[in-house]
Structures are given as C-alpha cells and as structure tokens.
Amino acid sequence: MQKINRRFEPSPSDSDYYMLTQLRSALENVIKKYIKNSEDNNQISILDYGCGEVPYSKLFATIPHKFTSADLPGNELANMILDANGNVPCEDESFDVVLSIQVLEHVPSPQKYLSEALRVLKHNGLLLLSTHGWWTHHPYPNDYWRWTREGLEKILNEEGFKVVDNRGIIGMLAYSYQLRAQCWKGLLENKGLIASSVFSLIAFYYQKCMHFADIITPVNISKNNSSIYLIVAKKA
C-alpha cells in the first residue's frame, strides 16, 4: 500500500515528486477530456495492462467502470494474469480503455505489446499510454527503450492506432534538475538517517527548481524534449 500511495500522493521530499504529480495531473486531464460514460450507461471496461502497483485506478472513481488490473505472474495486486509473452487472457475487443502507464520501456517487444493492446480494445476504444523520453536506467525488472515524440507516434501508427493527443511532461531544463536529484539519491540513499535527511532537503529544493524551469521553458522546446510523453490513441 505504501508504494501505491507514493505514486499517487508522493512526498515533496521524494526525488520523483514533481514527475509523479505532473503525470497524475496530466492523466486526470486526459481522462476528463476523453473518457466518457458509454451511451447506453453501461460501465466502461478498463484494462490496466502491466498494472504494477495499480496506482491510478482512483482516477476513474467518478466514472461508472469495471477496472481490470493485469500483470505477469507474481503480482498479487493483479486480478488478471498475463502469460510469459504478455498476452491478455481475454477475447478480442473486450475493453473500452487500455491504460498503460510507464510500461512500454520495460517490455521486450513494444510492437507485440501494442498489438495486444489493440486486439483487446473495442472499436473506437482508447489507449492511454505514457513512457519515457529522457530518464535514467530503472530496471523493473528490465529497462529497454527511450522514445522521441515522432518515434512513439510512428510505432503506434504502424500497430494500428490513431494518435489523437500527445503531451510532453517535464521539459529538458526541468529534467536537468531531476537528473541531479537522482544522482544525489544514488549517493545518499541507504547511508543512514543523517544522509537521508540531507537528501530530503536536496530533493525538496530540486522539485522547486523543476517547477520554475518548466514555467520558463518555451512550449515549442519542451514538447519535443520531454522526460515523459502521455499519448491518447484510438483504435483506428
């Protein structure tokens, strides 16, 4: 439960505080804009594909829905277990929405993963996907890929999706402070109470720097040089 709270409500002294809060805010915005109640008032079916700690299910609380968390064997929070190749044990066109948050960089074959997401989506269903542009190595259990805006849109289009929204989160200047925070974390983490307290102060300072950096960075620069891309794509 603690890890779930960290992603949804991180501490300001967390090195990833700014990233996590900006990602959550962007998700809230796209859900409000694109996810509507079905015309026949049935529940919207949502698949969290590679659910991890299932941190974002709360974002759908105001929408009548059925939420399915899916992951590889060993994740006790998943209520649907994928096979070793990441295949979803369900029929074609089973879900209105596929949620894929910070998963794509960890899968061995992005094409295979996206093809499976397309298969389980209903006609006109939506994929909400975020993944990294700039970021440090973070195996979970492996870390394979980084993307540009154009590269991410290209692979989605090739797998049968139509991108309707692509938002950059954390610009290049802001990420320079994020990188500093992550470096200090590596130096001070697990080094005792004093080192932990020092790191908390450093992390808090860098979160403020990141916020200011994003304010002053022109949109035309940050949109193509982002730490995270959040995409809304429709099953074409």
Automatic annotation (TrEMBL):
<dbReference type="GO" id="GO:0008168">
    <property type="term" value="F:methyltransferase activity"/>
</dbReference>
<keyword id="KW-0489">Methyltransferase</keyword>
<dbReference type="GO" id="GO:0032259">
    <property type="term" value="P:methylation"/>
</dbReference>
<dbReference type="InterPro" id="IPR029063">
    <property type="entry name" value="SAM-dependent_MTases_sf"/>
</dbReference>
<keyword id="KW-0808">Transferase</keyword>
<protein>
    <submittedName>
        <fullName>Class I SAM-dependent methyltransferase</fullName>
    </submittedName>
</protein>
<dbReference type="Pfam" id="PF13489">
    <property type="entry name" value="Methyltransf_23"/>
</dbReference>
